[in-house]
């Protein structure tokens, strides 16, 4: 009931137990999940694809690029593994802070500012890949969506703060 009311008010709450169940029972192979997310997001948006691929100037063949994208998927998995713990899911300030820092880190990944829409594309891809797996119920999907919403919102805060700090310094 609490989460239903929170949703009506437009501020859904993180449901740690449900999120952990989604992570452990619905997303069986985490690295494979994020690899699919990256492929999905690259297919959705050429701009994102160019950024992710151009980070690896020295990679030549498609196989090599795919290998590098799989390494990125593993790093995103490590990040989510860190988030999906009692200490972080149960502590909304801590969760927001970790995401904010990760967003700040993103400010150094490309010289041009990421389009606002890129963040939503990433979030949508993470939802779509899970939804397409066919192994998840609606309430579980909503719990995952709520977590991703918090991750997205706070990463963006960190990202845009870091970008404006950089531009104030003339970077
Ligand atoms: C909610 C959305 C996102 C999440 C959860 C996420 C997560 C991550 C994580 C955990 C890493 C690895 C950090 C490390 O190990 O140091 C990473 C790297 C990266 N992300 Fe994101 N990211 C998101 C959105 C974006 C967006 C919108 C872009 C824009 C294209 C982007 C571009 C990159 C790039 C270029 C890298 C570095 C790749 C490299 O080092 O080769 N990310 N991301």
Could you characterize the architecture of this molecule?
The protein is mainly α. It has one domain: Globins (Globin-like, Orthogonal Bundle). 77% of the residues lie in helices and 0% in strands. The chain contains 9 helices and no strands. It has helices spanning 2-8, 16-26, 30-44, 46-54, 62-83, 86-89, 92-106, 116-132, 138-168. The longest helix is centred in the last third of the chain and has 31 residues, at 138-168. The chain starts with a helix and ends with a helix. The model has no long low-confidence stretch (mean pLDDT 90). Bound molecules: protoporphyrin IX containing FE (HEM). The site of protoporphyrin IX containing FE has 19 residues, from helix 4, helix 5, helix 7, helix 8 and helix 9. Protoporphyrin IX containing FE binds at residues 48, 51-52, 55, 72, 75-76, 79, 102, 106, 109, 114, 118-119, 122-123, 151-152, 155.
What order do the helices and strands come in, and which of them pair?
Blueprint lengths: L1 H7 L7 H11 L3 H15 L1 H9 L7 H22 L2 H4 L2 H15 L9 H17 L5 H31 L3
Helix pairs in contact: 2-9, 3-4, 3-5, 3-8, 7-9, 8-9
The structure holds protoporphyrin IX containing FE.
